[in-house]
Amino acid sequence: MPELDIQVSVEDAGWPDEAILEAAAARILGAAARYLAETEGQPFPAHPVEVSLLFTGDEDVQEINAEWRGQDKPTNVLSFPAMPIQPSDMPGPMLGDIVVARETVEREAVALEKTFDEHLTHLLVHGFLHLFGYDHMTAEEAEEMEGLETRILAGLGLSDPYEGQVPV
């Protein structure tokens, strides 16, 4: 069974309490890791793999997005793998960082007619898959990644977030 060491930092007052976010992250990322290991054959080391989560706001995410991706705007989630891996590669002891912008998650949840928690769950799974080398730059990659997200979310009792959409 894959083990995760999840480090949580909260840098925006609008987020739920850190203990609530830690429990949610353990449940969500744990389910995603189990799915990858049991269904997709993703190898995991015998030791826990560290994942760092930063829950912050649009302003901080905009700065990070501008610096690291050259896009001077906020976005919902950013993922930074500790080292580049491809799906099915063995991760190192540090998987990487996931950064989430609260205001963007709130706006998108309303627009998508989802609860905040449902949308956050989707984005954490999405960011986690990026750390394993999954991407959505081509239609083929998007189909694979979105399929994984949908199946992982179904295991968490959530509906298909891409229903009715064409992969991009």
Features of this protein?
alpha/beta, nuclease, globular, single chain, 17% strand, 168 residues, 4-stranded mixed beta sheet
Architecture overview:
The protein has about 170 residues and is of the alpha/beta class. It has a single domain (about 5-155), classed as Metalloproteases ("zincins"), catalytic domain (Collagenase (Catalytic Domain), 3-Layer(aba) Sandwich). It is about 45% helix and about 15% strand. The protein is built from five helices and four strands. The protein has helices at about 20-40, 60-70, 100-110, 115-130, 140-155, and strands at about 5-10, 50-55, 75-80, 95-100. Strand 1, helix 1 and strand 2 (about 50-55) form a beta-alpha-beta unit. Helix 1 crosses helix 4 (about 115-130), helix 3 crosses helix 4 (about 115-130) and helix 4 crosses helix 5. The longest helix has 22 residues, at about 20-40.
